[in-house]
Amino acid sequence: MSELETLHARIRQCTLCRLSRTRTHAVPGAGPANARIMFIGEAPGFHEDQQALPFVGAAGRFLEDLLATINLTREQVFITNVVKCRPPDNRDPQPDEITACRAYLDGQIAQIAPRVIVTLGRFSMQLAYSGVSISRVHGQPKRIGDVVYMPMFHPAAALHQPRYRSLIEQDFLKIPELLSGIQDITADDQHAAPPEQLSLF
Ligand code: SF4
Question: How far is the CA of 97 from the centre of ligand 1 (A)?
């Protein structure tokens, strides 16, 4: 068993936070262990919790459509969430739940070592940006170490509020340049989360 598979086995058995008591299945994530691009959403929803797979509902189908616009399939990317278990009634994940689950996300990033991490929504955005609105920084890539972070709206937001749809579609079209390294990205510390906040998520 690879280190990533071992990590996912631990997630499936995890009881570190209260979400373990209400989940049907933990949802570690899905995709190749050597994916060049990783998508990080917020938390599993109803269908994800039932099927133990990330992004399988309507937002997942929209994500697949978005991937198709840049000639990618979900089998080519790694998809996961900030917390691996569904919050009851799809409420927001709580700070202590995010903190409890953070080591799993860090482990996945370390094992997969993607070139680009696309954060979907305001929770995973805080991996790279802190104290700013997602409306202000979406579509603005930022390099931290060897990884380029690209914040985007969550696909579910685009489903519920059509004005976000064209924004996320436009942001997606920037991904190929990021993967090829064509786009020159300077580290922008203006919106950077200080290290202590990054460690706490
Ligand atoms: S959300 Fe994360 S920390 Fe909480 S029980 Fe699930 S896997 Fe464990």
Answer: 7
- Residue 162's pLDDT is 87
Atom of ligand 1 nearest to the CA of 20: 5
Tell me how many domains the chain contains.
1
pTM of the model: 0.91
Structural domain boundaries enclosing 181? 3-200
Residue 144 above 90 pLDDT?
yes
97 lines ligand 1 (CB under 6 A): yes
CA of 61 to the centre of ligand 1 (A): 25
Query: From atom 6 of ligand 1, which residue's Cα is the shortest distance away?
Result: 85
CATH number reported for the structural domain that contains residue 64 in this entry? 3.40.470.10
pLDDT, greater one: 182 or 117: 117
Within 10 A of 147 (CB to CB), how many other CB atoms are there?
16
User: What is the rounded radius of gyration, in angstroms, for the C-alpha atoms of the chain?
Assistant: 16
Model confidence pLDDT, tens digit, residues 156-168: 998 988 889 999 9
152, 28, 30, 36: which is closest to 82 by C-alpha? Answer: 28
